[in-house]
Amino acid sequence: MLNLPRLDDLDYQKLWDRARAMAPVLAPEWTDLNDHDSGVTTLQAFAWLCDSLNYYINATGEAHRLAYLKLLGIRPRRSPARCRVEFRAPSGAALSLPAGTRLLAGDTVFELERAVEGRANRLIRLYSEESGRCYDLGPFVEADGGFAPILTDEPSRPAEAFFGFAEPLGGTVRLFIPVAGTGRNPFGDDFSLVQLEWSCRDGGGWQRAEVLSDETRGLLRSGFLTLRLSGETALYENGRLAPAHYLRCALRQGCYDRRPRVGRAAVCCGTAVQTDTAAHTVELLYRGEPSLPVGYALESEDRVSVAVREQDEWVVWRDFRPSGDDLCAVEDGAVRFHKKRFGRVPAKGSRVLVTIARPGAPLLLGETDGCASRRVALDPDGLCRLRLALSRTGPDGRRAFEIYDECPDLSGAGCDDRVFQLDRREGSVVFGDGVHGVQPEAGLLVEALELARSSFGGGNVLRGQVNRLETPVEGVTAENLEDAGGGEYRCTSEELEPLVEEKLRAVLRAVTAEDIRALTLGTPGLLIEDAAVIPMADYCAAAGEAPPPVNTILIAVRPKSERRLPILSEDYARIIRAHLGRHRMLANDLQVRPARYVGVGVYGRIRLADPGRAAEDGVLEALRVWIESENPVFGRRVDYGGLFSRLELLPAVRAVSQLSLEYLGEGGRKNEHGDILLLPDCLAYLWETGIEFV
What we know:
Shape: flat
Number of helices: 12
Distance between the termini: 81 Å
Structural class: alpha+beta
Strand order of the largest sheet: 19-25-21-22-29-28-32
Radius of gyration: 35 Å
Number of domains: 5
């Protein structure tokens, strides 16, 4: 039964009664309001229509609300949690963990997204060299979860960092480098502030390494760094560096806005996804070799089938239960073809599909009956990945199948698309009707080729909790280096509706001053504290300058920094201009400039209730907070009277006998009341104090 909300309490009778009551007022000449009157019949018809519309609007269900959200670009969100896991083994031991290796956080299963291979190694030294001075930062990263600042944020100052490892490095090296968060705006893979050069130390000297990929984008965020070394590192030491196998990172171009703080780099590290896979497929290409490595975790109890693409369908060469009719074998983690042993091999260039199923996993879902929009029952709880095969038995007795993929909505599918839709509410999969998606013929078995479930948000476990391999490997331990994140499950309209406000309020075009400021503050990859958007006409009026060119807008920007008075770099200004240019709709001239600072000097004579150093420091700190931190607004007025009153209200102050304000900087002036006035692109700071405490 539908749950009908009451969007409007006007039903047919109320509407009719209201209309009849208004007739004598609006049409006095209308005196016959009995049912036989044609005008009354018209009113009754419209009252009935309105009542019917109210009923249908009230009856809007979950499917309708999800459709409305889809029109706004808001779709159900289902994503499993992810984390980076470091594997440790005895120093120098070979480590090989294929994709799909299962890890445990209590009873929660995680699986490796890709293989982790290499020699067990660990970071034992970390140095940062700046302007010829070398700093040993090893103790920082040796601490659990510790981070150390490296390189420099000073322009044109040479800086290098040295990562020392216990064992040699060679060939392709994939490191996970944790970087402490700084509150930086999210950015993509095309953003970078600096250009780094990586090199390794072999027996002959420093050799430049090729950067194959850098998820950190120049050590701006945590991620994997993949290098190709020309040779193998050698043990190296000098007067500054202790013995280790070193990688060197040198700052060659650009400048950091804040020094990167890195943690313990991990060599044997991989990404784990919180999924519990019952069935998985791997597609391979046969080129004539006798053995095809599967490249996925295979346990002795797992069931494995192999199919080869022949003409327009997949033909099973080895079923889940091996038999004498098999045309291939699965041995030592590889598919083996042999013409003498099995009688034939696939044609070169054939596609091979390997399906791995866990023991006891129910893969057979049902059978098709040839009807349109056929439904097959399936428990949707926690389902995050599903791929189906519709199979039949051919004339030669071998099973053949076609693959059907999930689509979010069958109404968008074509008549030749082999797709299905998962109806989570009804707990079933729905096939096409011949118009929207292929309508399967009768008698086909519906089987799961890929089936994985997740706890979604329940998989966002804390750092260090992913710490066991489901199938132990001697000497190998695991630990996630960071909290697992990204797990999310929003499928109902009630869960998705909070995203509507976010969607509607998103600023995508620079039209108004508020738009420009929001886009400036959100510039990808930057650290921006505040920005002021000032029409140049207003600025010139405040500064007493000549009128500017029309449509000129000044944007004053203060970046986030550990410095007291941060200055906007030219790189920052260039990035902001480019970002605003991509969103600008009007032909405005946007001028991005650094915020200017006006120093405020405070002088006077203050009598303290309890004279002493602590009381004096408290008064000076209160002045700094009032002028700089409490209201850091562009173009604000430093009010002489307000400052005087605030000082007198401090518990440590008995009386303020004298007080005056002065300023330092081109953007300020003093009025007749003693206030310091700032231009619209200026911020105030406490420059000097000359206070006599008595």
